[in-house]
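Hey team,

Filing this mostly as a record. A colleague (T.K.) asked me to run one chain through the structure pipeline before their review meeting, and I want the input and output archived in the tracker in case anyone asks later how it was produced. No errors, nothing strange. Just documentation.

Input sequence:
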Amino acid sequence: MAENKRPKTLRLVDRVLARLSRVTSSGNFIPEIDGLRFFAIAAVVLFHIAEHVRFHGPVHYADAPRSNIYRLCSAGFVGVELFFAISGFILFLPFAAHFLRGGKQPRLRQYYFRRVTRIEPPYLIHLGIAFVIALVINDRDPLQLAPHLMASMFYLHNLIYGMSSTLNMVAWSLEIEVQFYLLAPLLAGLYRIRHSLQRRLAWLALTMSAMAWRPCLSSPLHCSLLAYLPYFLVGFLLADLFVTTWNRPPTATWKQDLMATGAWLLLIPATELDAWRQWILPPLILIAYVGALRGRYWRQIVSNRWLVVTGGMCYTIYLYHVFIIGLVGRVASGVMVTQLYWANFLLFLIPSTIAVLGVCAVLYLLFEKPFMYRDWPQTWRAAMVSRLAHRGVKA
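Output structure:
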């Protein structure tokens, strides 16, 4: 009865958000994680909008780096590292729960099967769409694109060509994610060390080693898991703390919120310190995420329903946002009529953001959410068998 008393607009918003909400097959939903995903994908989208205005708008800005807006948005590249830390937490969490708290043992066969059935179908659909866009809109040669398509299908483009996929420039990070999926069960063996201090010292030694070897990596290893392992290991420690230390509700204190706020603010200038980036960003991300998961006010922020729902669509947004920004740029280039970078950025920001959210919401419902259900292969197979039987064909 109380639901019927709510305004129709609010009831409609609730239905839309419920429709767009992510499916969690494990039953262990942590809304703060999807809220953090929102911050990561927002940073990436803003970065590419800023780059589009600078390099592909009607005015080319040689002095754009001096713009405060451009400097702020160019720090959005850190969104990729934010995603890596989240992936580390999510994938390490069941192993930490098993080894450190006696939880259910993760089955490697189920682990890898779930990764394939959840991630691969939307990715392959996206590659098909990207291939068509390259042929029809960008007038590319299909014979030249075919090897890049095959390399991207098997997540090997970085290693074979030493650069991001020509079909979708953001796909490089997905290849690194897949490399991590393969290695994560082995790294999770550190949780077998029962003594918490010894385990965390081993984590620290591995993380510091990974930070130290990154400057020594050359192509194609500079775009591999070896170069970004410290960010995934941030997730390792977060999962450790989540299982062993954070088994009680957080205390109502402002200290973690204050530290997290400082870490978030320092992420922006830290991205410009190329020589020290690999040493500074992982601990800053760790502090920021601790505040988001345990701080009083930051937990409220990252648990906001709008942020959680949008963050739950981050995979689709990540796959398609560059294409949508480019298409909007073709249409809206006439809107950017000033010589001021910040003005053109703001003029382009509104239509591109609306387009990214609107189009990706539809693509998410079509090409990602159906594959979030753990039993979708069995459901699809049963439906196919039923359809064939109806036509008199034996499966």
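Quick notes for T.K.: The chain has one domain: 32-390. DSSP finds 18 helices and no strands in the chain.
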